[in-house]
Amino acid sequence: MKTSRGLAIAFGIIMVGAPGAVAQDLIVNSYGGPYEAIIRERIIEPFEQQFGVDVVYDAVGSASQDYAKIKATGGRPGFDVVVMTASQSLDGCREGLLEPLTADAVPNVSALNPRVREIAGECGAVHELQYLSLVWRKDKLPQGLTSWSDLLDDKLEGKIILPTFQNVMAAYLIAVMSVTHGGDLLEDVDPGFETVARLAQHAIGFEQASSVMETYIKDGRAWAMPFWNGRAQLLMESGLPIDYVSPKEGTVPLVATLNVPSGAENKDAALKFVNFWLEKTSQEAWVTGYKVGSARPDIDVPDDVRDRQITTEADLDALLLPDLAALSKRLSQWGSRWEREVVSQAR
Questions:
Q1: Which of 99, 160, 206, 243 holds its CA 20 to 30 A away from the CA of 47?
Q2: What percent of the chain has pLDDT over 90?
Q3: Whole-angstrom Cα distance, residue 112 to residue 93?
């Protein structure tokens, strides 16, 4: 998922193994919003210190836009590392547009949970896990929320913000609403579309970027919304009167991946960067900084962080896990249905 995404990150680096080589830029495309300050402190600066690189940010694109660029350029999009999701990782690997991230190329992938590695496929290095949570303002809804169906309560009419279908959050919302209302994650999704169409009648509108969605909950225009739990935790810790929950019907994980386009110009440096982010200490820094889960079961993080994140096998067992390759094949059809059946019902 990319939300308000951005940052094309340029690293000035001397290529390893080439004495006297000319300095080149390693371009890493990643998230914007609160991500930028955290990635600088927790990942980029330590990487700079270890490898002697200079870092420049340039905000660009969303995950779907980034993958479209990779596809349109035959694997030569102008960046060397990109943060996407498992769905794009599977598509890009199948189409030969992403570099396989094997244990030989990126040793730290061997430290990741095998089930999570399988979800993302050979071309995706899972650097974080989040889940689709239900977020609400405690000052407006002091009784709290526990179910996806709570979003349909009349008191929330005109007080909900929804994602556009360009944000993978929308597809996940369809899936969890289908399960909640008698369908399933992939095949019988009519209940999901019917429910989200009703929900659209309560919504203020639709936003693609998570960073824009959160402005609605910050200023009180929205009282509740579906949202990634890590981002919700950051909002809580900023002092906003909000809380979030994994609803009782279950939820779907966001498997975020690091990817290297097959035609990346600085592939060796890109692989070093991916491996660095998967280091145990880097994962511990990232989980505690960005408030997300990790696919490394050996990390040491405080209990108050671990308790609300995906960090154990039991956490994975509690999730709804759609076949992401199968989901990816349905996205075009679901996107058309979303515009026709959901957006058409908006206020």
A1: 99
A2: 71
A3: 19
List, in sequence order, every residue forming a beta bridge with 41; answer none if it has no partner.
none
Residues recorded for the chain: 347
- Residue 191: its H or E element: helix 190-200
**pLDDT for 25:** 74
Compute CA distances 7 → 82, 103, 161, whole Å: 10, 27, 25
User: Which residue is it, tokens 């994994």?
Assistant: 246
**Nearest partner of 334 among 119, 190, 134, judged by Cα:** 190
pLDDT at residue 14 in the model? 36
Asked if pLDDT for residue 99 goes beyond 70, the answer is: yes
Count H helices, E strands: the chain? 14, 10
Residue 288 DSSP code: H
Return the HEC string of 206-264.
Answer: EECCHHHHHHHHHCCCCCEEEEEHHHHHHHHHCCCCEEEECCCCCCCEEEEEEECECCC
CA nearest neighbour of 308 among 288, 334, 286? 288
Evaluate whether 237 touches 38 at the Cβ level (below 8 Å): no
Q: Where are the extended beta strands (E) located within the chain? A: 6-13, 24-30, 54-58, 81-85, 125-137, 160-163, 203-207, 224-228, 242-245, 253-259
From CA 257, how far away is CA 109, in angstroms rounded? 11
Name the token pair of 165.
């279908």
**139-161: b or e for each residue (b if 16 or more CB lie within 10 Å)?**
ebbeeebeebbbbbeeebeebbb
- Contact at 8 Å (CB) between 229 and 119? no
Query: Which residue, 188, 186, 184, 192, is CA-closest to 226?
Result: 192
As given in the structure block, the two tokens for residue 38 are: 């955290």
Cα–Cα distance measured from residue 261 to residue 100, given in angstroms and rounded to the nearest whole number: 9
- Residue 172's SS3 state is helix
